[in-house]
Design a protein that fits this description.
Layout (H helix, E strand, L loop, with lengths): L2 H10 L3 E2 L1 H7 L9 E5 L4 E5 L4 E6 L2
Parallel strand pairs: 1-4
Antiparallel strand pairs: 2-3, 3-4
Length: about 60
Amino acid sequence: MTDLEISNYLAKHNYKVKPQNFLMDVLNTSPQIIDEKYDFRTRIMTLITPQNTFSFEWNY
């Protein structure tokens, strides 16, 4: 998935994603992701690519 596709995916899901779906739909198809950070207190996941940083909420 390109950065634009990730951005569109997050917007479509209001920046609240189900972890299993996101892992399969985005993380497994986005080789440009260079780092991932998760804040357990706020449930915010941050993905870093060479061009962008994406933050969103894990929706359990």
